[in-house]
Every structure is written in C-alpha cells, then in structure tokens.
Amino acid sequence: MLTSRSLLLAIISLTGHRRKHSSLSLLFFAPAMQYIWCMAINIEVTRDSSFCPGVDRAFKITEQMLFGGKARCYSIGPLIHNPEVVKRLSMLGLEVIDPDSEDLPDLAGMNVVIRSHGIDTATEKKLESLGAVLVDATCPTVKRAQEAASMLVELGYHPIVLGAASHPEVRSIVGRAGGPVTVLESLDEAKRWADEHRGEEIKIGVVCQTTISRDLLEEVMAVLEHDFKDITVMNTICESVARRQEEANELAGNVDLMIVAGGRNSSNTAHLAQRCAEECVNTRLIEDPSEIESDWLVGVSSVGVTGGASTPDWLIQETVEKLFELEQEREKKTQG
Ligand code: SF4
Fold first, then answer.
1. Tell me: the pLDDT tens digits for 30-73?
2. Residue to substitute in 80, 210, 245, 271 for testing ligand 1 pocket (most ligand atoms within 8 angstroms of CB)
3. Is the pTM higher than 0.85?
4. How far apart are CA 324 and CA 45, in angstroms?
5. Using CA positions, which residue lies closest to atom 8 of ligand 1?
6. What domain range is 147 assigned to?
7. Which of 178, 202, 237 is the last residue of a domain?
8. Which atom of ligand 1 is nearest to the CA of 139?
9. Where is the domain boundary, 237, 259, 279?
10. Which residue in 1, 69, 97, 266 has the most C-beta neighbors within 10 A?
11. How far is the CA of 166 from the centre of ligand 1 (A)?
C-alpha cells in the first residue's frame, strides 16, 4: 500500500513528466486520491521551473567530467548560481576557482569547466597558458551573444550590451568582442548615455544579456532610436527565459501565494521573483523549502510554484512536498 509520502512523490513525479508538455495543476491531475479530498489548497507548478537548457547542459557536461575518473576538477566560478547544487558538486570533487586569484592551484593537465555564462578571451588564454584542459560548457545562446558583439565590432559598429556589467555573462560578451563596448544596465543609464553622445555619428549595435526582459530592450531602443539613426539590434534574449517569465507572471496573477525557488545569488531568479511580485503581492523567494512557514498558507487557497534557470528539479519537488506537508498539518489541526 502506498504511504502518504510515496503517494505524494508519485504524484509529483507524474506531474513532473507532464510538465514537459503543458503547465499543470498538480492536484487536479491525479485521479481521485485521498490527498485531493483533504487538501484545501491547489498547487500549480509552471512548466519551466527548473534548469534551463543551457544550465542543464553545463550540469551534465560537468557530471560526465566528474565521473570520468579525474581526482579533481575545477569550475571557473560557481557552476550554477545555486548554493545547494554547488555543495553537491563539491562533494563529487568539483572545486571552484577564481581565475583572477593570485593563489590558483596547479592546473596543469586539470579539467577546468567553463560554465554556461562563458569566459572572456584573456581568461581563456591565461588558463591555457597554465596548462588547464578547458571543458567548454558555454550555453550556445550565450555564444550567440558573444559572436554578435564580435561581429558588430568587425563591421564597424559600437556594441552596446544591455545587461549587468558585473554579471559573468556580460563580462564574457564584452571580453570576446575584440573592441570597445558600452554596457548599459537600465533605462536611466541609456538616457544618460544618449544625452552624452547626442549628435555624434555613431553606428550602434545593440546586443542583449540573454536574461534581460523584452520590455527593457524595447524601452532602451525607443530612447536610442530617438537620437541615433544608424542602429542595428541583435536580439540575443534567451527564449527559454522569456517564456519562463511569461508563464510565471501568468500564474502569479491567478494565485494567492506565489513561491519562487532558487539561489538568492541568481540574478534571473531574483528578477523572476520581482516580476511575480508585480502580479502577486504575496510572492516569496525561497532558497530552501525549510524556509516556508505554515503562516504563509493562512487564508490561501491557491499556491503557484516556479523557479529560476539555475533551480534544480529536486528543489521544486521538495518545495511542493513541503507545502503539502504544511497543508496536511493544518488540516489535522483544524479537524482536531
Ligand atoms: S538562460 Fe538561456 S542563455 Fe542562459 S544558460 Fe539558460 S538557456 Fe542559456
């Protein structure tokens, strides 16, 4: 006979499969089971709630590298912006290095994985000169943005990268462009830049950090097009991120509580939570399901769950499981 826990895991696992095809309503999916009768809340998980294709690819490449027999492997910065995943990979033998550190380990003959954000040319050359064997897990979509910036430089355009200057992906785009690049992080920065350069004969080529919103691109373009004639846009926004955001916004607008699971150091998770909060004021960003408090469910009849591009599937499953457990406890208290 199924125990409560195994039944729940079965439901989650089935719906996880279904999630690949459509968004799901977790508790409506299962045929009449005991949990449906006792649950007073509906839990819905967005279809895109865990690793995006680029992160998934980097994770699998790294796993293969770790299981390939080398005693020690390295990643340039944390492989994924999620502390729990980094901890688990470290237990398998992955060490994080900072290529700018003066205190690098001996990398001769060592596998060093380039994470999905990519790296700049100077760092690549430095690591190669130290004898590292580079394992390239740069996301193909990020590569497209890197190549777009470099092509614009070759064609005589001044590339403007829309994104966060300190983000590793933007640094990799800038560092592979092969010429001067301007990074603009916000609409205000774009307005200031346009004020400073108004009247200059500049051929501008816009490239996007893959995770920025379409809204930001449109707003910045409106500003630039007003003041400059020769502008070309390379829309390198990642479709996967855009779709995830749209699904999450839609769900957030229809639930009483929206939970966004993911690393607090992940900018795309933070942005996802920020946008969900615009649709549902009761939006919570959690890094670990243990952070969910029973009080959050008071007066709540529907809960939405989503996660950032670096959120592992197991974190989403554990989040749903935790919600389920809390709701069961609440039911018991009500009945007792
Ligand atoms: S968010 Fe998009 S661009 Fe970034 S790693 Fe994932 S798939 Fe690649």
1. 333 333 334 678 999 999 999 999 999 999 999 999 987 665 79
2. 210
3. no
4. 13
5. 54
6. 141-237
7. 237
8. 8
9. 237
10. 266
11. 17
